[in-house]
Design goal:
Elements: H1 8-13, H2 16-22, H3 32-42, H4 54-59, H5 65-80, H6 83-115, E1 121-126, E2 129-134, E3 143-147, E4 155-158, E5 164-167, H7 169-172, E6 178-180, E7 185-186, E8 191-203, H8 209-219, H9 225-254, H10 259-273, H11 278-295, H12 304-310, H13 342-351, H14 360-367, E9 379-384, E10 392-398, E11 404-410, H15 412-418
Antiparallel strand pairs: 1-2, 1-3, 3-8, 4-7, 4-8, 5-6, 5-8, 9-10, 10-11
Helix pairs in contact: 5-6, 5-10, 6-11, 9-10
Length: 425
């Protein structure tokens, strides 16, 4: 009996016991032979890719209205023995194809390099023991452990552990990590920023939240505005050149002109009607655009997308802020309370942060203290990082005069309670 696949939304509603029954698993994990059987049934834990042959991709650049016209001109030049024109036209035809193919191949290589940052290994419980397995071999029903710094390798129902803080910016656009406890769902591709927990694999490969999103994007392949415009131009030129060629043939035949002279006139007409340099100019222009975007760490997978983005007048995004830099910057304090000034408040916040801690708020605070020379005069002897229970950080420091003191930062309500502030204050 095969284990029933579970959707991430259904997994969120179900209890751990119900999921163990549906996935025919147990807290001790799967047996090695059972995991292998499921791997054969469900396939590897990786996004399914339809990779076309490089030769097929290259040859597609010779297919289309404008390449057809250039090819016709090359054939006519060959028939007439006009070798200079033939080699010039052939060079432009091949140059256009090579340039477009090279740019898209370079983008594909950059995307492949990014995929190399995905989870490669996972800690799974097999035959009752914790073992390291390739992330691609995880199957629904596996019990795995995730910890600080790791990429979540599959959709998980979190089971045991205090908490994990997970960065889901790549999926949701949220700048701050999300704190999760037992019963929550961790999505494949998100990053663990704090904590350690075990989880039950509910979805792998294309059956994950990320995999289904990628499949929707892939199936959306509409013809771009740029491609439509080029096709319209190409079709118009083909019809225009064809009609004129037919009229020319009729007129010249009525005058009893030699056939080779007739072909020469047709060749001149076709070459004049073909924008031979247009594909090269378009490819070079968009290639330069792709190069400029790459300097800003934007990868262009298809050159035509540059024109599409340039044609946008209004861009609408939802209220969750999906378009985000995933960065937090330090703002100006509105109230300093008992601090002498803003710098005094900022110094206290910096002293209650830790540079080696992978916390986005600590990083933002420490990034804004470049002008505070006195920060280096204090020595941090102990640091307690933020956790979702205490909701604050705490540090014990040694002052320049040798005295010890304690400083803390955290959620407003927690800090107010810590300071014993009453309603009148």
């Amino acid at each position: 009996m095969e284990a029933k696949l579970v959707d991430s939304q259904d997994a969120k509603k179900a209890t751990a016991e119900e999921l163990f029954r549906q996935l025919q698993s147990q807290p001790e994990g799967l047996a090695s032979n059972a995991a292998q059987e499921r791997l054969d049934v469900y396939g590897p834990n990786a996004l399914e890719e339809k990779e076309a042959s490089a030769w097929v991709k290259f040859l597609l650049y010779f297919w289309g209205p404008i390449p057809w016209m250039i090819e016709v001109a090359a054939i006519l030049s060959l028939i007439l023995g006009d070798w200079p024109d033939f080699f010039i036209i052939l060079f432009l035809l091949v140059f256009n194809a090579v340039l477009g193919f090279w740019e898209e191949s370079r983008a594909a290589n950059a995307l492949a390099a990014l995929k190399g940052h995905l989870a490669l290994k996972a800690r799974a419980k097999r035959d009752g023991k914790w073992v390291d397995v390739p992330a691609a071999e995880l199957v629904p029903g596996d019990v795995i452990r995730i910890r600080l710094g790791e990429i979540v390798p599959a959709d998980l129902k979190l089971l045991e552990g205090d908490f994990v803080s997970i960065d889901q910016a790549a999926l949701t656009g949220e700048s701050l990590p999300v704190t999760m406890h037992g019963g929550d769902i961790a999505y494949s591709g998100s990053v663990v920023k704090q904590g350690e927990m075990t989880g039950l694999v509910t979805g792998t490969g294309n059956n994950t939240f990320f995999g289904r999103t990628a499949a929707l994007v892939e199936s959306a392949g509409a013809v771009s505005h740029f491609q439509q415009a080029v096709l319209r131009i190409g079709n118009f030129l083909i019809v225009f050149a064809g009609v004129l060629s037919v009229l020319l043939v009729i007129v010249e035949l009525s005058r009893n002109e030699p056939f080779l002279d007739l072909l020469q006139f047709v060749l001149i007409l076709v070459i004049a009607a073909i924008p031979v340099a247009m594909p090269a100019v378009l490819s070079v222009t968009m290639a330069l655009g792709a190069f400029q975007l790459s300097k800003r760490k934007a990868i262009v997978s298809r050159l035509q997308s540059i024109e599409e983005m340039a044609g946008i007048d209004i861009l609408c995004s939802d209220k969750t802020g999906t378009l985000t830099q995933n960065k937090i910057s330090l703002g100006e304090p509105s109230v300093v309370f008992m601090a002498k000034d803003e710098d005094d408040l900022l110094l206290a916040a910096a002293l209650s942060s830790q540079s080696g801690n992978d916390d986005v708020i600590d990083k933002a605070v420490l990034a804004g203290i470049g002008h505070l020379e006195e920060y280096g005069q204090y020595h941090q002897t102990k640091f307690i990082p933020f956790d979702p229970v205490k909701k604050r950080t705490e540090a014990i420091l040694k002052a320049p005069d040798g005295s010890d003191f304690r400083v803390s930062k955290g959620a407003p309500q927690v800090m107010l309670d810590l300071c014993a502030v009453d309603a009148e204050t």
